[in-house]
Write a structure and sequence with these properties.
single chain, 181 residues
Length: 181
C-alpha cells in the first residue's frame, strides 16, 4: 500500500477544480478506499497488539511451567503451538501497522488454525475417557465428594465450554482480521 503524501488543502482543492470535480477536498479524501482501508488496518493492528501480548504471556507461562507440568508429548506440542501462533501474531501486527495487504490473510489463517487447534484439543479431552489417579479416585469415593459419573460429566462440560468460548473467540478474531480486505 503506498504511503499517503501530505498535500495542503488549498492545493488539493485547486487540483480538484482544475480536474472539473465538484467534490471538496474532504469529500474526495472520504471517497478514497485507501483512507478507509488504513482506518481498518489501524483497528486490526490494535486487536493484533492485544492478541500478541496475551499470546506471548500464555506462551511464556507455558514455557516456564512445562517442567512442572511434565515434559510429555502433549505438553510440548501445546507449548510449540503457542510459540508458533505468537510468532505469526507478531507478524500480523507488524503487517497491519505497515499497511501490508498480506495482513488480513495471514491473520485469518493464524487465528483460524489456532481456533481449530483449541477446538480439537478440547473435543478430544471431552470425549476421551476420564480418570483420576487411583488414590484421588479412592478419596473422592470415600468422602462421597462427587459421584464419579457426575465428575466425568463436569469435566466433559468444562472442555465443551472452553471449546466454544476460546475457539469461538479466536475464530471471531480471524474473521475480524479478514474483514479488513
Amino acid at each position: 500500500m503506498p504511503p499517503l503524501i501530505p498535500i495542503p488543502r488549498e492545493a488539493l482543492a485547486e487540483l480538484l477544480r482544475a480536474a472539473g470535480s465538484p467534490l471538496t477536498p474532504e469529500e474526495y479524501l472520504a471517497s478514497l478506499p485507501q483512507v478507509g482501508l488504513s482506518k481498518k488496518y489501524r483497528g486490526r493492528a490494535v486487536a493484533a497488539a492485544i492478541s500478541k501480548y496475551c499470546l506471548a504471556l500464555v506462551a511464556g507461562v507455558g514455557v516456564v511451567t512445562l517442567p512442572f507440568l511434565g515434559i510429555t508429548v502433549e505438553n510440548v506440542i501445546i507449548v510449540i503451538g503457542l510459540i508458533t501462533v505468537t510468532y505469526f501474531e507478531y507478524r500480523v501486527h507488524r503487517y497491519f501497522l505497515d499497511g501490508d495487504p498480506r495482513a488480513p490473510g495471514l491473520g485469518f489463517r493464524n487465528q483460524s488454525w489456532f481456533a481449530a487447534a483449541i477446538i480439537l484439543y478440547c473435543f478430544y479431552h471431552a470425549l476421551a475417557p476420564f480418570s483420576l489417579p487411583p488414590d484421588a479416585m479412592a478419596m473422592v469415593e470415600e468422602n462421597n465428594v462427587i459421584d464419579p459419573k457426575t465428575l466425568h460429566a463436569v469435566v466433559q462440560m468444562f472442555y465443551f465450554v472452553i471449546a466454544v468460548i476460546a475457539g469461538g473467540s479466536q475464530f471471531s478474531l480471524a474473521w475480524y482480521y479478514r474483514s479488513a480486505r
